[in-house]
From TrEMBL:
Membrane-spanning ranges: none
Domain F5/8 type C as annotated: residue spans: 764-900
Name of this protein: Glucose/arabinose dehydrogenase
Stretch forming the signal peptide: none
Organism ancestry: Bacteria, Pseudomonadati, Bacteroidota, Cytophagia, Cytophagales
UniProt keyword annotations, A-Z: Coiled coil, Heme, Iron, Metal-binding
Record-linked Pfam families: Cytochrom_C, DUF7133, F5_F8_type_C
Entry superkingdom: Bacteria
PROSITE patterns assigned: CYTC (PS51007), FA58C_3 (PS50022), PROKAR_LIPOPROTEIN (PS51257)
Length: 900
């Protein structure tokens, strides 16, 4: 091997990738190393393989008609520097690689933390072959990269989190901390590096109820903290919010997004559809619901201008131009409203997303008219795109505004970009992939920086984790939106109210409108909004400030400032159509008194297109809600819910807030904890019932509240069941109902309890869900293969993906869990769907796996199943066994074990 000099920057990569780098000459950089060096050279030799067409293919159908079946040379991957020659950019722009394989593999998303370090989500199991084999193996990771010598190339790395099952996102959440969630799971976890070695060593539950099962392309992605201090993700019709008292949640419209959530300078969220290929929900913030606007996509928006002419897209020839390029956007991934300051002004606050099937990056321009937004490709007349590439392997899947003020583009650089369900035997797409041998090209990935001539990147390195809250305030005036967002988030996470006066000064006196807006929302996140200041802002000369004041005031209204309804009514007549529309939306979402009549009168008086579209759809939505309310719950559940609401409004709301968010007192503290999204209330119902029966004093999870929860045991069982059922199914919550019989049983069990509970005492006796860990051993007598790329893994029973038997039910079929140590098990819950529930079953426990004790038995039912045994039993093994024959397989998902 030729002896070579290795720079300090490449030393790390040399030690981990010796085989790859050994062929490099001294002049070569990592970006000159071609992935094709590791491919079988025979793939480049003629004759090329013949094309295999399914026997039953209808060659006259729009999918197949006109397909090119002649042998072609294979697509060959090239080095990053060689790939640069393939890009067609708008004048003045330049791309440069900052990170590539072999250092990273299959990058799908990036995020920067408060010190400017770049987290890379590496989906290392995505389509490693044409059949998606091993897709859910635990080999994906989240790596963290840093440019320590500030030369623009990220050379220093750690594997922050490893052995993940197709993780959905990475969210920096304070110093050395991220949020993430794996596929087919329902829980978001907070991962922290506590010993500062660069690797997460602490895992904590952050939030539940945000998961989704099924195809990996159709699950939750991009949990994003936005200007309003809420976090939004795809697929979830709810938003969540971190508070000092825990994570709360609220219902929203449907995101209709698949891979990408971002926001503009004014907090408008944008969601990126996947298969649809277009942006979604960009008219109004999602909390106000979904609105249909005719022709919001201007004529021709759906037409891409691709330079790749392989016709290798899932819809087939029906969406092919005569030159075999794509004629209709069919896939998109990753999005960003560019908010940096080191690219031309005409790009700032513009929306961008990748269309990896067309191998383009699309820029979106917005035209506002009478309160509504209409979007177009600004390069349509020139039949071009913001970025094009002739390299078929260019796969832009994420875009981000970087701390240095430029735009970063994540390129998976691979052959297949569609998941295995669309590349199955007999499919058009499989034929095209094999024609160009693109199924061989995986395991690569590049991250690009986009710059503009004459505009240098910002070389100031962020050090926000070492700064005080007062020092962070100055970043709210930064021209780069990334700095403003990070500073706002960190001040709120610090909950340092010593900066309130400085923030109020910034709102009231700054000439920088964006700084004023961020300062306003930072005050909102600190629970320190001043009502008089908000009212003053509602009369500000800037329409955008009036809009932000309206949105921020909603928090005050939720916490009891009902007098703000007067401003909402008055501002319906604002001279700005956008402000008037916002007043209408705020009045609606807060359900102010007689809001339905208010909307009707507004429609008569305000003929602006936006007001007519929004007002009409709001009335339609309210009518449907009334119809749904009558059928949402079973009769017995509806009776409990209705009675519970009446009790809550009359008694509980005084301390817990009318919206279940708690009632604030001086300094922003709460009289009592919030109910919205409360993991305690949404956990085992025994917690809420015992609290109502006997009361609670002292700190809750270490947090002191001004109020005291007194015992309510003088009320009957139905009264308590109604209240608990209501709060578990309102305020964005969705939990099981509690029956009066359940309350009666707990009342009897605790009849000797003479004093109120303190929190630790109560928690110690409540059945607590125990989370599956890697050291659990899960086995079953029969396990079916669950979908493309899956394995026969019974542990899927604990996820949304689910487990089921290969055949119909038979007596003796079993499912078993072996824990690493004994636990005081008391209950299990599982969801068997509509028809694959066990006919009859029993639950047995064992300390050694040999001697078993039956503790419960029951009959299965559709949906959620719960079975308890009177007192907890210490055991290390749990077995669920079917005891009767059935026509259907036995299935379980969302299996949960409870222990005392």
């Amino acid at each position: 091997m030729q002896q070579m000099r290795i720079s300090q920057k490449l030393l790390l990569f040399y030690t981990v990738s010796l085989a790859i780098f050994s062929s490099c000459t001294p002049e070569k950089s990592p970006f000159d190393v071609s992935p094709s060096d590791s491919l079988d050279p025979k793939r480049m030799e003629a004759p090329y393989p013949a094309i295999s067409i399914p026997e039953d293919a209808d060659m006259e159908s729009p999918v197949w008609k006109g397909i090119d079946l002649t042998p072609h040379p294979p697509v060959v991957p090239v080095s990053a520097n060689e790939q640069l020659k393939s890009f067609v950019l708008q004048p003045g722009y330049k791309l440069e690689p900052i990170l590539s394989e072999p250092q990273i593999r299959e990058p799908a998303a990036i995020q920067f933390d408060g010190n400017g370090r770049m987290y890379v989500l590496e989906l290392r199991t995505y389509m490693q072959d044409i059949d998606a084999n091993g897709e859910l193996m635990p080999t994906s990771r989240i790596s963290r990269w840093e440019d320590t010598d500030n030369d623009g190339v990220y050379e220093t790395s750690v594997i922050f989190l490893d052995s993940l099952v197709f993780p959905r996102y990475v969210v920096p959440f304070g110093k050395n901390t991220i949020l993430s969630m794996e596929s087919n799971e329902d829980n978001v976890y907070k991962y922290t590096d506590t010993d500062n070695d660069g690797k997460a060593d602490k895992k904590e539950l952050f939030a539940s109820g945000l998961g989704r099962s099924g195809n990996v392309e159709h699950q939750t992605s991009f949990l994003t903290w936005t200007m309003d201090n809420w976090m939004y993700s795809t697929y979830n019709s709810r938003r969540i919010r971190w508070t000092p008292d825990g994570v709360i949640q609220e219902p929203t419209g449907n995101p209709y997004g698949q891979w990408g959530v971002t926001q503009d300078n004014y907090g408008q969220t944008w969601f990126q559809d996947g298969a649809g290929g277009i942006p979604q929900n960009f008219q109004f913030p999602l909390v106000y619901g979904n609105f249909g606007v005719k022709e919001q996509l201007k004529e021709g928006f759906r037409e891409p201008f691709s330079l790749v002419k392989l016709a290798d897209f899932q819809p087939g020839m029906r969406e092919s131009k005569p030159d075999n390029s794509l004629n209709n956007v069919t896939g998109s991934a990753g999005n960003d409203v560019f908010r940096g300051d080191r690219l031309p002004k005409e790009l700032q606050n513009q929306y961008f997303y990748g269309e990896p099937v067309g191998r383009i990056v699309r820029q979106v321009s917005v035209e506002k008219s009478e309160g509504l937004s209409y979007i177009q490709n600004p390069y349509r007349e020139a039949q071009s795109e913001f970025i094009q590439s002739t390299d078929p392997l260019f796969r832009p899947v994420d875009i981000a505004t970087a701390p240095d003020g430029t735009m970063y583009i994540v390129d998976m650089y691979r052959g297949i970009i569609q998941q295995g369900n669309w590349t199955q035997d007999g499919s058009y797409l499989r034929t095209k992939i094999q024609q160009y041998q693109m199924d061989d090209i995986a395991g690569n990935g590049r991250i690009w920086r986009l710059t503009y001539e004459g505009m240098e990147r910002n070389t100031e390195k962020p050090r926000m984790y070492e700064e005080t809250s007062a020092e962070l305030v100055r970043h709210l005036s930064n021209p780069n939106g990334w700095w403003r967002d990070q500073a706002q988030q960190l001040i709120i996470l610090n909950q340092d109210k010593s900066v309130v006066k400085e923030l109020e000064k910034l709102v009231n006196t700054s000439e920088n409108e964006l700084a004023r807006i961020h300062a306003l929302w930072t005050l909102e996140g600190l629970n320190s909004l001043n009502l008089s200041m908000v009212r003053k802002l509602m009369k500000d000369s800037s329409p955008q400030m009036r809009i932000q004041a309206l949105r921020a005031s909603e928090s005050l209204y939720k916490y009891g400032e009902k007098s703000l309804a007067k401003e909402y009514r008055e501002m319906l007549n604002d001279s700005s159509k956008d402000v008037a529309l916002q007043a209408l939306l705020s009045a609606y979402v807060l359900h102010i008194d007689q809001v339905e009549e208010l909307i009707k009168s507004t429609l008569k008086e305000n003929k602006a297109e936006g007001t007519q579209v929004v007002g009409t759809q709001l009335l339609e939505r309210m009518a449907k809600a009334k119809e749904l309310a009558a059928t949402q719950f079973a009769p017995q559940e509806l009776a409990l819910f209705t009675k519970g609401k009446s009790i809550f409004d009359s008694y509980c709301s005084t301390c817990h807030g009318e919206k279940g968010l708690g009632t604030p007192v001086g300094g922003g503290e709460l009289i009592a904890p919030a109910f919205s999204g409360s993991p305690r209330l949404m956990g085992h119902p025994e917690y809420a019932v015992k609290t109502l029966l006997h009361g609670m004093t002292g700190a809750i999870d270490g947090k002191e509240y001004e109020g005291v929860m007194i015992a309510m045991d003088s009320n009957d069982d139905e009264w308590i069941a109604s209240v608990v059922s209501y709060i578990r199914n309102e305020f964005g919550n969705s939990g099981s109902f509690v029956s009066p019989e359940f309350v009666a049983e707990l009342r009897k069990e605790t009849t000797s309890k003479e004093s109120t509970y303190d929190f630790d005492e109560l928690i110690s006796e409540i059945p607590k869900a125990i989370t599956i860990q890697d050291n659990w051993k899960i086995t079953a007598s029969s396990t079916a293969l669950q979908g493309v790329g899956s394995t026969k893994d019974p542990s899927y029973a604990f996820s949304f993906k689910g487990w089921k038997t290969e055949t119909a039910q038979a007596p003796g079929m079993w499912f078993q869990v072996e824990l690493p140590k004994e636990r005081n098990l008391s209950e299990i819950q599982f969801n068997s769907g509509e028809k694959e529930f066990p006919e009859k079953y029993k639950v047995s426990l064992s300390t050694d796996g040999k001697s078993w004790k039956e503790v419960a038995s029951g009959s299965g039912e559709k949906g959620m199943n719960t079975i308890q045994w009177k007192s907890g039993e210490n055991a290390r093994f749990l077995r669920i066994e079917g005891t009767e024959k059935g026509d259907e397989p036995w299935a379980m998902k969302q299996l949960t074990l409870y222990a005392r």
